[in-house]
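Subject: sequence -> structure tokens, single chain

Hey, anyone have a minute? Need the predicted structure for the following. Not urgent.
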Amino acid sequence: MDLRTVGQQLNVRTVLEGSVRRSGDRLRITAQLVNTEDGYHLWSEKYDREMKDVFAVQEEIANSIAQRLELSLDSGRLFRAGTASLEAFKFYTQGRALFF
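Reply:
Had a minute. Here:
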């Protein structure tokens, strides 16, 4: 779907899009912020990480995006980890993928 249409329908100026790929115990996460008015890419980043601490990677990426958006965040953690079990997190993400 065209991001300009998405921006109009959701009444937003910026859209975050990305992907997550896994190879063995490695993750490659890409994220980009796109201006919905003109399609201009405001920011993009690639993260290659080991899967040993998915929540730390999630927090790092969220902080990076927030800084790019120039948001002020509380000094506490952005995300409260629901589980320390990588296996449980894997099943959770597989279930969410099937849900949508």
